[in-house]
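User: Some background: our group keeps a shared notebook of sequences we're curious about, and every so often someone picks one and asks for a predicted structure to add to the entry. Today it's my turn. The entry only has the sequence so far, pasted here. Could you supply the structure so I can complete it?
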Amino acid sequence: MDAYSPIPAQDLLEIEKTYVLHTWQAAQTAWNAPMIVGGEGPWFWDAEGRRYLDLSAQAQCNHLGHQHPAVVAAIQQQAAQLCFIHNAWGSAPRAELARRIVEKSGLAGGKVFFATSGAEATEHAIKMARWITGRRKIIGRYRSYHGATGNAITLSGDNRAWSTVPAPDIVHALPPYCYRCPFGLSYPACRLRCADHIEDVIQWEGPETVAAVFVEPVVGTNGLFYGPGDYWRKLRSICDRYGVLLVADEVMTGFGRTGEWFAWQHWPDAAPDMMLLAKGLTAAHLPLGAVVLNRRCAAYFDDHPLPTGLTYAGHTLCCAAGLAAVQVYEREDLVRRSRELGAWMHGRLREMAERHPCVGDVRGMGLFAALELVADRATREPLAPWPQVPPALSRLSAQAKQRGVVLGIRGNLIILSPPLNIPSADLAWGLDVLDELLAGVDVSLAG
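Assistant: Of course. Here's the predicted structure to add to the notebook entry:
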């Protein structure tokens, strides 16, 4: 067959099953998905012409939906001029994107180290934290996720780390999961015991050995919870007390997802020492990650070596896509829109929860929300032990896809993270479909 002859979609699917390993599969033989051939805005479609409303923004990364024309045009223009130059040389897109990131972060005097993914950003931030502090231990939290590479997956308090050999000098603390508080307390009477627990761990591990605490300001697909009240500010104070760096993982939450440019900015007087970025950095049009360092951390490398690197760090084409994405977020006022449309979405979800006994909790920020499903709302008994996906939720997800709506599913959670520019009518329709399908879960529980 001529190399440029079209291959029928069904044949392509067989080729994919034969030659591709698909991520996070219990067994590769279980993979079964249509061939996707196009997309526009919050919609994408398969080779059979079926259209899907993308309420998960793929993996919480298509912040601008599919094929945003301004980002596509920027990629095309840069590709025609210069696809790649190693970062031993200067690059206009890289320089300008780094400047804009530092400006939006508010970390004045800081610098950006570019990677190609969130996991790579985590790996390099761990190394940097150890070099800057001269300490070796890193504290993460259970029910977190920081990537699938060696240190990153160990740092993640996630079941997906169970089958890997753990990296050394990484320890975990309990999370601020108010709906299922690991301390059996309630806010505000708890007086932020979950934050004090981080201090306990620092003391137990030896403050002189702890380099950094890595935290998702709003936890991603492991729960969509965040520390109540002044939790983040208290973390900042604890880290300062012991000379420990505070690292905000903004891979899922960055670039407007929670209604601020970065989620930690909901507590703007408690800036982190470093941020991890990816996903929304280019709105997933091309792969790009970053570590943003504040002035103090960046200054360390003024007179110390930076003994690390990536061939594609600050890839010219990817940085052009990132710069275009930032400009779209600004021009279309999407951070504010996420905040305002997100408030409407959360209100609609709370109304749904009142009608559906299977919904135990609604939480999140901006255009990032989760419904936690339960077998009994009074006792908060989960539909299935974490992280199993209960059959009722698997059926709901499959039925939603049949109706043309794609939801994020993890454990007992339905996760909503639509593109920030989704038309409000499309979002309303997708939520109507979800509302109808939740009634089926209610019936299954009643039966």
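Suggested note for the entry: Residues 70-331 form a domain with the Aspartate Aminotransferase; domain 2 fold (CATH 3.40.640.10). The chain is about 40% helix and 15% strand.
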